[in-house]
Each structure stands twice: as C-alpha cells, then as structure tokens.
Write a structure and sequence with these properties.
The complex is a heterodimer of chains A (532) and B (490). Chain A has 532 residues and is an all-alpha fold. Helix content of chain A is 73%, strand content 1%. Chain A has 24 helices and two strands. In chain B, strand 1 and strand 2 form a beta hairpin. Chain B is 75% helix and 3% strand. Chain B has a domain of 221 residues. The chains are: A mainly alpha (532), B mainly alpha (490).
Chain lengths: 532, 490
C-alpha cells in the first residue's frame, strides 16, 4: 500500500483529497432516494459501504502533504490516519445496516455519509472556515440521527438536548474563531502559527477549546451525551458515539500542532479537562444500567486518557504524544462501535445482553474481545493505546496523570466486566418482560439484574450505595419511559434472529481489534512519518 | 522450541473452537492430548537443558515493535524451568481432573488451554511487555473458569479476583513504563546491567518507587497480607481444577516476578524493601495459619494455608541470601505440588457429596480408606514433614533468613512458630475430616477412582522424590540463587 502513494496523485492530482467526499455525497444521494431505486434501503447501505471502502483506500494511498485549493485542505499524516480510521468505522456500521437494518434506514445511511464527509473534511482542514463548516456538517446529521425514531419521546428529548448544546458549543467555537480572525487577519492554519500574544487571544483560544470539548463530550461539557445516547437507538449511537468524537479529537490535535509553539498555556485547560473526564466519566459509568449511558460516560473517561497526551509539555515528547493520542482514539472507537452494534439487536440496557452467549455465541465472544480491549488487556489493541500513553506520559513528566489513568482503568474494568458477565453468565429475563404493562415491575427487575451480584455483593452495594441512590432519580424517569417502550414493543417487535451479515460486521470489528494489537508497531510506524 | 511450548495449546484452543456442538464431548480429549504433548515437550527440553549454569538457554529474540524496543524474547533458565514443568504438568492434570465437566465443555477446555498459554508465556518471556501480555492473558481464562463453573458466589469471586489482580498489574505496568523511560529497554536480562549503570544517586529514589510498583503487582498475585483478600473467595468458588491451578501455579507468578524482575533489576531498592517484605511475609505466615484454624469450609482452610506457605517463600526472598532464594524457589514448586494435590483431593469428595463443610464430612477413612491415606500424605507434606518436599523449601527459607543481615532474628522465630501452627491446623483438619464417625454424607461413597488416582499419584511421587533427593530441584535453583545473591551483594 505504501508504494501506491505515488500513483494516486498522478491520476487525480490534489483532487485525490476531495474524491472520498464526493464518493460519500454520491452514496448519500443514492441513499436519500433509495426507496425509488433498486435495492431499497439495504441496497443503499451496501452501495455506501463499497464507496466508503474506496474512500478509505484512496485516503490511505494518497501521498502525504497533498494540498488542495491553496492549502484549504491538507492531507497531513494524522489526517490520513484519521480518515482511514473514520472510514473503517463507517464501513463496519454500513455493513451492519446493510444486513441487519430494519425499517427505513435509507435516510440514516445518507445522514451517516454526510456526517462522515464532514468528519473527513474536518481532519483535513487547513483553514478555520473550512474547519467550522466541516464540523457543522459532521454534527448536524447526528441531531437527526438521535431523534431518528421520532415517535419516541425520549429520543426527541435527547435530540433536542443534543441539538441545543451542540449549537451552543458551535457558537463558542465560532465566537472564538472570530476573535482569532481579527487577531491574525487570516483564517489559514499557516498564519495562525504567528498569533500575537495578547490576552484577547487567550480568550479566543479558550472559547475554541470549549467548543471542541463540547463536540468531543469532554468533561465538564459532557452532560448532553448520556441523555442523547439513551434516547437514541443503539445502532444510531454506534455511529454518533464514535465518528464525531474521533473527528473532534483529530481536530483538537491538529489545532494543538498549529498553535502549540505559540501558546503553551493551552495545556492547562486540557489537563484539567483530562482529570475531570477520568474521574467523572468512570465514576458515573459504574452505576449505569443503560448500556448507552454507560458507554457515554466510559467515552468521557476515554477522552480523558487521550487528553493527557494532548497536555504534554515536554517538547521532546509533544509530537509523539499527539501521535499516540490519535492512535488511542482509534483504539477507543472500534470496540465501542462493536459493542453498540451488538446491542443494536438486543436492546439498550445492560441486562438486555443477558444470555447472549446462548443466542449468539459468536457475538458474545466478540463482545468479550471489545470489553477486554477497552479495559486494556493485552494483546488487544486497547492495551497498546493505553501502554503508549503511559510510556509517553511518564517520559513527558505526567506521572501523576498516568497513575490516575491506570487507577481509572482498574475502575473501568468493573463496568466493562459487567457486560461480559451479562452476556455470558446472566440468565435472560422472560421474553414477555418487555411487554409487561406494569412498568414499575420491569424497572425493578432490570435494576436487580444489573446489580453486580444480586444478593452476594453486599459490600459492593454498600460501597456504591450512595451512587446508586443518586441514580434513583434516573430510575424514576425510566419508569415512565419503560411504559412507553412497552407500547412500542407491541407495535414493532425487535428482530429476534440476527442475520449472518450483521455478525460479519461485528466479527470484522473484533478482528480489527484483535489484529491491530500485535500490529501496533506497524501502525505507529506508519503514523509516525513526520507530520509536516 | 520454547515458542512451540507456549503456543501449542493455542492450536488446541482453535481446534476446540472449531469443534461442532455435536462432538463437544471430544473437547476434553483434544485438551488432554494437547496438554500431555505440551508437557512431553517440556520433558524433552528438560533433558537438553544444561544444568549448573545460571545463563539463559534456548534464547529466541525477534523484533516485534522495534519503534519502542519491544521484542518477542523467550528464554529459559533454572528459575523458570521447574515452574514451566510444574505448570504444564498441572494443566494436563487439571484437564484430567475436569473429566466430568458437561456444561459448555468446549469453552471450559479452551479456557484451560488458554491458561496454559498464559502461564508458559509468563515463565518464558524475557521482555517486560511480553511478560505483561502473558500475565494479563492468564486473568481472562481464570475469570471465565470461576464465573461459569464455580460455586454459588462465583460471580462475586470472579469479579473480585479480576479487579484485585488487575489493580495490582496496572501498577506493574507503570513500573515497566518507568523502567523503560530510564533505561530505554524492556529486556529483563539487559536491564540488570542497565540499572546498575544508573547508580544509586538520583535514580535511587526512583528505583524505590519502581520497586514499589512491581511489589504491589506481585504481592497481590502471591498474595501477601494485606493484599490477600481475593484469594479465599477465588479459591473457594473456583471449580476443582481452577483451584488447583490457582494455588498450584498462578500464585507462583508473583514469586517468579520478584525473583526474575524486581530483585535482580533493582537490587539497590531491594535493600530498602527487605525489612518491609520480611515483616509482611511473617504477618502472612502467622495470619494465614491463624485464620486457617477458624475455617469450617475445607477449601477455605487450604486457601488460607496457601497464604501462610506463600509467606515462607516471601520470607526467603526478603532474606536476600542464596539459601533464602533457593528456599523460595523450592517452596514455589513444592507448594505447587502439595496445594494442587489437596485441592484435587477436596474436589474428589466435593464431587460425591456436594459439600465442603468439614463438620458434614467426618470419617472419610471408614468409607474411602485409600483416599484417606492419600489425604493424610498430602497433609503431612503440607505440614513440612522431613523427607517430603514441603520441608525442603521451608527449611531453606528459615535458614536463609536466619543468616540474613537485613532481617532481625525475631522474625525468623515468629515464622518458626508459624510452622507449628501449620502442623496444628492440618492435624486438626485430619482429625475432623478423615477420622471420627462417618457422617451421613460420606457413608457409602465409592472409593477414589482410577482416573482420580491418576491425577494425584504423579504429584505424590514428585513430592516424595524432591523430599528425599533435594538435588532433583536444587540443581536448577542453586545457580540462580547464587547469582541473585551476587547481584544483591548480600
């Protein structure tokens, strides 16, 4: 593949950069009209999958530092890596949708393609205006996706919440960018490297940082994520919880690369956010009964690990820190996507996974791989993500951060193990539980099932009792929700049989998680070609 | 050769996974054949091993992630060879002991074999990252073994086991990373010279902390008081083969870690830690023995006795003398044989009666005389009766710590009292469990079967062989112990 770098630019010149986006727009348009086209909804997803595959391949084979439109778009090494990762994620999502999507998925496919196009542009942007537009293109389709099943009140609530908060963070981003424009008299990244050192610039960059943090759901700007994800369906969350976040992370790293030489103070807000992320994210995730909420908080904790690398001060290790931050984003995205796609056929609660190993042994094995990778067990790719962070963190004099990270990882093992426990060892609740009219009873049952060990875990219960109490309010909300879901279940029963294609998508994801670990050296070598 | 030993069981795992559900009963045969062949390979290795040298043999090194100097680096010496032999033997025996597993046999035997990959890997890797990789791999099959085939509180025990040991090992990971930052190497052997080159000035404090990070990781695994609380739960709830493997070989991973990594790589820091480790070891000895007295569950009693015995090994390490190191290695092996034997024997009765309450199991001697004889033999071995292997290690440990400049003699005296306590609770156990009037649960139970005998007799033979002819074990341990003594400069 590396030898092909020369070939693609010869054929397409700099336009190789824009071809993936064009392919994606073709895919999105096809999907929008899929009802009238051969193949229907699923065909559209299949076509989109093929086009995304091509997009990723083209990005992977395009030479580094290819420039388009006078450096409005630049394919730096990190952008190339980010593009390939994002395309892989979307590919897995589209394969799953092509085989297992039920109902109207055409629009969802179109929205994902638009969002992915935005994410690719955002990672390649060499100009603030392009960046802002690309980020909007990334997140606006997600508003619609979150509220995709518009008859669910909770989904609409989540979508509205996400919409308002996302707009707010966008405003921060735009506001900060306007100051930057005023100070630098330019929006090009190249000119940002010479920003004047003024108090106003501090404000401007902080505003931009807050905007990006909001997009990445970094604490303390993460509150929208659990509600929004809980309202959405797992197959939607699978995309919404991974691609936009990863794009946000790449943008953050890219901006830090541009600005770091001038503004070393930016590392402090980043480090504070990292600590908040790790603590708030992992502690909140401990008590969640809803898989989507849990993964939302776990995602916050994972962003914290990644931010540690962005906040490195030691100039020797800054560049390699960025590198491993990006690598870590990839190791976070793949397993999260996999878990949510498994849940997509099962249900959004942790307890819905019960008995998975009987129903779908292959998927259960994959779930174990994903959860263990997120915990950081070698030789899965998640281990290398964290290990590289630990190495560079200690070298870059962030020992305290690394120790916090490993402690938080140990805590995280608890809630990731709950997934394995549910999938392998819990007995599934009776099939009718979903249709029970008595919503209260159902909530009670699921609460019991999701507790660590039922009666045995007296000590754990005491330990986390306080936290559990705090989530009681959420339970009360659940009670109202459960009734609604029960009605819905009567209308459209969830598909019981899962097609082989869906399992294929999940196994593909698990294989990537499994094989990318031992190949971490190759990936990091590929990634560490000098960025500029 | 070494790679084959490590990864042969993985082939077994693959074959078992591909086994259709119709033939799932064949899984145990596949596992048995794989594990016996694996053990055969180790025997072949044993014959070609050059005795009397502390050098690494059969070394194999391939670049894996050269960007950060991570190598696939295997090798074997007198420290790892006996442990490797023990682990492959116990895996084969555990497979045979699990013959009656009918719930999800494919997953079960795949997990046993995966455990074998992890264990062999831990004892053979000479690269810290590779070592950590195998160290963590061991967790996963054991987690599954406990939480699927364990006792009534298995979920709790499994999660506790996983979280405790994971908590310990993440500190070890920080230690590994810190060592790399200071030396630029993950090579366990090269690190011995590299850290020596750093001197004891500024690096001294850092080394103290790195040693602390490793010590937490290893102490949780051994386990040393106060990190032992996962052990009784895990041992009691694990299925018979799981308990035997936990006590027999997994606890030794921690001791091995001290002897292979912490002590030789950070000898200066070790000096500062000797007294602390010695005190913790003696507390473990006495505490484990005292708590064992109070147990009514036979498995729990043996579990706490493990804490006590591991204390002797730790005491030997803390002594920092050649005799102490030899003693620690001898305790590792002999406790591995004896504890596995005891857990297998308890499993035999549990399979028949489905209870582990000592009160309900009195008078085994009347119903199962041959079994009772074996149990008494194993108990005497555990007590440290001379001419059985238990004596060798504990004697050497005490000898080594008496001769150590770093440990006050009072510690050794207290540890000696621990031996007395050990004799007392085992005798009391025998009196209640083996003798007395036969209880309802025991009455009319069939005698120990030929298959069960096959799992225990090899261990018993080794216990006698090592006990009578110490050289059998010490010929491997001694050069290493002397080399370690030279490194720590005691």
């Amino acid at each position: 593949m590396l030898q092909l770098h020369g070939v693609i630019p010869v054929i397409f010149k700099g336009y190789a950069l824009i071809i993936p986006e064009l392919l994606l727009i073709v895919a999105a348009l096809w999907a929008l009209f899929s009802e009238r086209l051969p193949g229907g909804n699923r065909g559209a997803a299949a076509i989109a999958a093929v086009l995304v595959l091509f997009s990723g391949a083209i990005l992977g084979c395009t030479a580094m530092n290819t420039v388009l439109f006078g450096s409005k778009l630049v394919l730096t090494q990190d952008a190339r890596f980010g593009g390939v990762v994002l395309c892989l994620l979307a590919l897995i999502w589209l394969i799953w949708t092509a085989f297992a999507g039920s109902g109207r998925t055409g629009e969802a496919t179109a929205l994902v393609c638009f969002s992915l196009a935005g994410a690719l542009l955002a990672t390649q942007a060499g100009d603030l205006i392009i960046l802002l537009l690309a980020l909007e293109l990334t997140s606006q389709p997600i508003y619609v996706l979150i509220g995709y099943r518009h008859k669910r009140a909770k989904g609409l609530e989540g979508a509205l919440k996400y919409f308002l908060l996302s707009i707010l963070t966008s405003l921060f981003l735009f506001y900060g960018a306007s100051f930057v424009l005023g100070l630098a008299h330019s929006t090009s990244y190249g000119d940002l490297q010479n920003l004047p050192a003024e108090p106003l610039m501090v404000v401007a960059l902080l505003f931009m940082l807050i905007g990006i943090f909001g997009k990445m759901s970094v604490a303390p700007f993460h509150f929208w994520a659990p509600d929004a994800y809980e309202g959405a369906e797992p197959w939607v969350v699978a995309f919404a919880a991974t691609a936009p976040k990863i794009a946000g992370g790449f943008v953050l790293v890219r901006l830090m690369m541009v600005l770091y030489a001038q503004i070393a103070f930016l590392r402090w807000p980043v480090l504070i956010a990292a600590v908040l992320c790790m603590l708030l994210g992992s502690l909140a995730a401990l008590t969640q009964k809803d898989l989507r909420r849990m993964l939302a908080y776990a995602g916050v904790a994972n962003m914290g690990y990644m931010l540690l690398m962005v906040g490195i001060a030691n100039p020797v290790y800054v560049a390699v820190g960025w590198l491993y931050a990006l690598f870590f984003l990839a190791t976070y995205g793949l397993p999260t996507m996999g878990i949510l796609l498994i849940a997509a056929s099962e249900g959004g609660k942790v307890s819905d996974l019960a008995g998975l190993s009987h129903r779908r042994p292959l998927a259960a094995a994959c779930l174990a791989v994903f959860a263990l990778s997120l915990i950081g067990i070698p030789p899965l790719v998640g281990f290398f993500g964290k290990f590289f962070i630990a190495l560079v963190g200690i070298a870059g004099s962030l020992l305290w951060g690394v120790i916090l990270m490993v402690l938080v990882s140990a805590i995280s093992a608890f809630y990731y193990l709950r997934l394995i426990k549910a999938a392998f060892f819990d007995k599934p609740e009776s099939a009718e539980a979903g249709a029970q009219a008595d919503a209260g009873a159902q909530v009670e049952a699921s609460a019991q099932a999701a507790l660590p060990d039922g009666a045995d875990a007296a000590s754990e219960e005491q330990l986390f009792g306080r936290l559990l109490q705090e989530s009681d309010e959420a339970l009360a909300l659940d009670a109202a929700e459960a009734g609604q879901e029960a009605e819905e279940a009567a209308v459209a029963p969830p598909s019981v049989r899962v097609s082989r294609g869906a399992e294929f998508a999940i196994v593909l994801c698990a294989l990537l998680v499994f094989l990318a670990g031992p190949a971490a050296g190759f990936i990091s070598a590929w990634l560490s070609n000098p960025p500029y | 050769m070494l790679s084959l030993i490590v990864f042969l069981p993985l082939v077994g795992v693959l074959l078992i996974t591909l086994l259709p559900k119709k033939f799932e009963a064949a899984a145990k045969w596949l596992a048995l054949v794989t594990s016996v062949v694996d053990f055969g390979l180790v025997i072949a290795l044993l014959t070609r091993f050059k005795i009397g040298s502390a050098a690494i043999q059969f070394e194999k090194e391939i670049a894996w992630i050269p960007q950060v100097h991570i190598y696939y680096h295997l090798g074997i010496d007198g420290l790892s060879l006996p442990l490797l032999a023990l682990s492959t033997l116990l895996i084969a025996i555990a497979t045979l002991a699990s013959w009656k597993i009918t719930v999800k046999p494919r997953l079960y035997f795949a997990m046993i074999l995966l455990l074998s990959v992890g264990l062999s890997g831990v004892f053979l890797s000479l690269d810290l990252v590779l070592f950590y990789l195998f160290w963590e791999i061991v967790l996963i099959p054991m987690y599954f073994l406990i939480s699927q085939w364990g006792g009534p509180r298995r979920q709790y025990a499994a999660i506790k086991f996983f979280l405790y040991t994971f908590f310990g090992s993440v500190f070890m990971l920080v230690g590994i990373a810190a060592l790399f930052i200071y030396t630029g190497s993950f090579d366990m052997i090269a690190l011995r010279h590299l850290t020596a080159g750093l001197g004891s000035g500024a690096f001294g404090t850092v080394a103290w902390w790195i040693f602390a990070a490793f010590a937490i990781g290893f102490a949780v695994k051994i386990p040393i008081w106060p990190f032992h609380t996962w052990l009784p739960d895990a041992h009691v709830e694990a299925p018979t083969a799981g308990s035997a493997l936990l006590a027999g070989i997994m606890l030794k991973m921690g001791l091995y870690g001290f002897l292979r990594i912490a002590v030789p790589i950070l000898p200066q820091a070790f000096h500062h830690w000797q007294l602390i480790l010695g005190i913790l070891a003696v507390v473990s000895i006495v505490y484990g023995a005292a708590v064992a007295f109070a147990q009514t569950d036979i498995k729990k009693l043996i579990a706490y006795s493990s804490v006590s015995h591991m204390g002797f090994a730790m005491l030997g390490i803390a002594a920092g003398t050649a005799a102490g190191f030899s003693g620690a290695m001898a305790v590792s092996i002999s406790h591995g044989l004896i504890a596995a034997m005891l857990f297998l024997l308890v499993g035999v009765v549990y399979e028949r009666t489905h209870t582990r309450e000592i009160a309900k199991l009195s008078g085994v001697a009347a119903a199962m005389p041959r079994y009772a004889g074996l149990f008494c033999f194993a108990s005497f071995a555990a007590m440290g009766v001379p001419l059985l292997s238990g004596f060798v290690g504990e004697f050497l440990s005490l000898l080594g710590s008496w001769g150590s400049a770093a440990l006050p003699h009072v510690l050794v005296v207290i540890a000696g009292v621990g031996i007395l306590l050990g004799g007392a609770y085992m005798l009391w156990l025998m009196q209640r469990f083996i003798f007395g009037t036969p209880s309802a649960a025991i009455e009319g139970q069939p005698e120990i079967s030929a298959r069960e005998l096959t799992t225990i007799v090899p261990l018993a033979v080794l216990v006698v062989a090592i006990g009578v002819y110490w050289t059998l074990l010490l010929q491997y341990a001694d050069p290493i112990a002397r080399m370690l003594q030279k490194l720590v400069g005691a």
